[in-house]
C-alpha cells in the first residue's frame, strides 16, 4: 500500500519518526529512492547532481568505510569520493562553497569538536548549522550510524540529505542510492559534469 509520507528537508520536529515506520521502503537492486518514492538509479543520480549544483554549501561526509584503507575496494572508493568532490568544486560558481568533512569514527566528541574539520555523527546538526550546509552526502558510513545521523539532520535542519549506501540504502535520507561502488560514485561525478552550467546557482 503506497504511503503518503515524504522524506523531505526539515526541520521536521524534535523527534522525527523513523521513515521505515511511516511506510517508506528500501529500493530493490538497480533502484533508488527520492523522498521515499522508488525511482531508477539514473534518475536519482541526476537529482543528486542537481542538488549539489544548486546548493550554497554542497558537502560530502565520508565515513570510516572509505576513510581507512582497510581493503583495496575501500581505497578505490576513497579515490572516487575525492574525484566526486573535486568535480563538484570545479562545477560550482564562486558564490558556492563545496566542502569535504570527514567522519573518521563514531565516538562522541566531548566536550567539543571543531565543526569546520570534522562531523560529529552523534550531533551532525551542529556541523551543518555551523557551516550553513544545505545539501550533503553520506558515503562510507555504517548503516546504523547513518540512519541515526540522517534522522537528527532531518529533525533539526533544512539540509537535503543524500546517502550512497554499500548495502540496501537508507529510508531516512531524502535521496538514497544502494549498492554503492567506486564506479557508481564516478557515475555521479559524470552527472555533475554533464549538468554543469545548466542548473541555476542558489540566489
Helix content: 25-40%
For the largest beta-sheet, the strand count, sense and barrel status come to: 7 strands, mixed
**Euclidean distance between termini CA atoms:** 39 Å
Average of per-residue pLDDT values: 93
Short description:
36% of the residues lie in helices and 14% in strands. It is of the alpha/beta class.
Spell out the blueprint of helices and strands.
Elements: E1 31-34, E2 37-40, H1 41-54, E3 58-62, H2 64-67, H3 72-91, E4 99-100, H4 124-131, E5 135-139, H5 143-156, E6 160-164, E7 175-177, H6 182-195
Parallel strand pairs: 3-4, 3-5, 5-6, 6-7
Antiparallel strand pairs: 1-2, 1-7
Helix pairs in contact: 1-6, 3-6
Explain how this protein is built:
The structure is a single chain. The chain is an alpha/beta fold and 203 residues long. The chain has one domain (34-106, 115-195): 3-Layer(aba) Sandwich (Rossmann fold), CATH 3.40.50.1220. The chain is built from six helices and seven strands; from the N terminus they run ββαβααβαβαββα. It has a seven-stranded mixed beta sheet, sandwiched between helices. Strand 1 (31-34) and strand 2 form a beta hairpin. Helix 1 (41-54) packs across helix 6 (182-195) and helix 3 (72-91) packs parallel to helix 6 (182-195). The protein is globular and about 40 Å long. The termini are far apart. The mean pLDDT is 93.
